[in-house]
Write a structure and sequence with these properties.
By secondary structure, the chain is mainly α. It has 2 domains: 104 residues, Endonuclease III, domain 1; 79 residues, no CATH class. The chain contains 10 helices and no strands. The longest helix is centred in the middle third of the chain and has 19 residues.
């Protein structure tokens, strides 16, 4: 699978082959540019010296993990808070999915079930869950019955509304323009 969210070949390669990296990137996608959020998993993996593993992240000393994310350049604008969220997500995956991020969406009956599973993840509210569901459907081939409906407006075809619609530098700019327009409209 070819992912182009970080706009960096090494970071995007990790996102394309690691469901955990993709999930962590989505978790980090708030209050920072989306490329930085989705490059975060690669930075964490580089600092760990190996691919991401939910069990390792969950069991990492919280202060040391926060320091890992805070080292320059910081993985996120709020490295300590995001380190805690990444560890909470990893812990949840260990407890509910044997540490496998892919099991969150594997073998779901329908889009509504997938949305419920995503909403149960620490750090995933409705909007983040729907965007990630749309990303899975549009770019990862995870398309249970009713996935577009469960993803809400983010599942629509031919829109440039969220990370689910970013496939290259041009579509990233279209998503940014859509978000700026929505902010302008909200101010009126």
């Amino acid at each position: 699978m070819r992912i182009r969210l970080a706009q960096d070949s090494e970071a995007d390669e990790l996102l394309g082959r690691s469901p955990l990296a993709l999930l962590i990137g989505m978790l980090l996608d708030q209050q920072v540019p989306l490329e930085r959020a989705f490059a975060g998993p690669r930075t964490i993996a580089d600092r760990l010296g190996r691919d991401l593993d939910a069990r390792e992240i969950a069991s990492y000393d919280p202060d040391q993990f926060a320091a890992l994310l805070a080292a320059a350049p910081a993985v996120h604008r709020y490295p300590k808070a995001m380190a805690a969220r990444v560890q909470a997500l990893a812990t949840y995956l260990v407890e509910h999915y044997d540490g496998s991020a892919e099991k969150v969406w594997k073998d779901v009956r329908d889009g509504a079930e997938l949305l419920r599973r995503l909403l149960a993840l620490p750090g995933f509210g409705r909007q983040k869950a729907q965007i990630f569901l749309a990303l899975l459907g549009k770019q990862c081939g995870v398309r249970p019955d009713g996935w577009r409906e469960a993803a809400g407006p983010y599942g629509e075809e031919g829109v440039h509304r969220s990370v689910a619609d970013v496939v290259d530098a041009e579509s990233l700019q279209l998503v940014r323009a859509t978000k700026q327009e929505a902010k302008r409209a909200a101010k009126k």
